[in-house]
What we know:
Layout: E1 2-8, H1 17-22, E2 30-34, E3 37-46, E4 50-59, H2 61-68, H3 77-81, H4 94-103, H5 105-108, H6 116-119, E5 122-133, H7 137-145, E6 151-158, E7 168-181, H8 182-197, H9 207-215, H10 226-233, H11 238-257, H12 261-264, H13 280-296, E8 300-304, H14 310-316, E9 323-328, H15 331-341, H16 348-353, E10 354-358, E11 373-377, H17 388-399, E12 403-409, H18 436-450, E13 452-459, E14 470-477, H19 479-487
Parallel strand pairs: 8-9, 8-11, 9-10, 11-12
Antiparallel strand pairs: 1-4, 1-5, 2-3, 3-4, 5-7, 6-7, 12-14, 13-14
Helix pairs in contact: 4-8, 8-10, 9-11, 10-11
Amino acid sequence: xxxxxxxxxxxxxxxxxxxxxxxxxxxxxxxxxxxxxxxxxxxxxxxxxxxxxxxxxxxxxxxxxxxxxxxxxxxxxxxxxxxxxxxxxxxxxxxxxxxxxxxxxxxxxxxxxxxxxxxxxxxxxxxxxxxxxxxxxxxxxxxxxxxxxxxxxxxxxxxxxxxxxxxxxxxxxxxxxxxxxxxxxxxxxxxxxxxxxxxxxxxxxxxxxxxxxxxxxxxxxxxxxxxxxxxxxxxxxxxxxxxxxxxxxxxxxxxxxxxxxxxxxxxxxxxxxxxxxxxxxxxxxxxxxxxxxxxxxxxxxxxxxxxxxxxxxxxxxxxxxxxxxxxxxxxxxxxxxxxxxxxxxxxxxxxxxxxxxxxxxxxxxxxxxxxxxxxxxxxxxxxxxxxxxxxxxxxxxxxxxxxxxxxxxxxxxxxxxxxxxxxxxxxxxxxxxxxxxxxxxxxxxxxxxxxxxxxxxxxxxxxxxxxxxxxxxxxxxxxxxxxxxxxx
Length: 488
């Protein structure tokens, strides 16, 4: 099993700096012990113009079999079929990926005290892997590496050159060329080598999700084949794949907002349940929403910013709502919603009625189109005011359901809460709370811009002086607008 990494240089930036970045001196041939054999690092060439580091992995087939017993689905299929005679000692696989992470551990992390200025520098790299098992062929190799900025040559290896009619094997000779940061290039290999082999020599445990996300940071969330990569890397273990994809989506959304992931995933209060206590106002709000949806004749409903799923659960109790979709940016909230709904205990027909998925209302989402109604229950006040136009367009301009219900606190009513200090918002995460006049002015502007009519309803006791505790706007797509869109 063999891999080479080459680079070129100049007198002021010599190619031999590769040795510093890899923490392996070009003048020394070094040997490292691995769980299944020995790894050799040597330099076939090393001068200021060109430097090549080679990793040669010697596998002990007997050790591989002994240490691979009982690994279940995580074990390599070739090893299970032919325990002592197989391709594992010769073809790049998870064995080589593990050796990379062991031998070049500091380089993978992007650490180099001797040449810190070159750690983040893009180097002209050439990586060669003479025998790479590729389930999916050369085309898949290209699909995985090309989006990462590599020029890819994946040359299929014939089954037997003496018998060309037998065709090609599942192996390719891989050459990658491009200007890359060395640490990122090593992380590409660490993830994608076992993905292409579609097998691992060890049992895939839950900590593999963390390993994948660490190695994939900065490139995996945006990779067009991230779902395939995640599934194969985790040996198609559904629970682990689902967890990894959820965390990748959260990382992607956080990156778009230029925020830490934990700040985006904040829909669940760490210290208390976000269900209002005492319950009556929360119950009244859900009942008011359901009454409005029934009056609108809605059957397919979106709960945008569904939080912990209380409204979704209430809608499921009414058979007139044939499809209910809950979406939230917070995976923690969605996990709580799933536990609340217990879809695994539902009958098949009931389970088909409900769906939960992650999404941000700051961006348009084609999955939200085509529904009868959308609900934004106690959502808008959690956004900074400059972000409201983005939500407005995502819901009213792009998704465009026939009916949109928006509820939000009435700040005038706050004086009636004995336990709420003057000038304080009802929830620590509320970015604003509007008076009835402010809410109506916003709603009328939204309706006018997007072809809706809007009406208003009180939720909770309607105080003659300060109004209700919750205010609700009911937006309805105008008949002329709806007809025009159908005609278009």
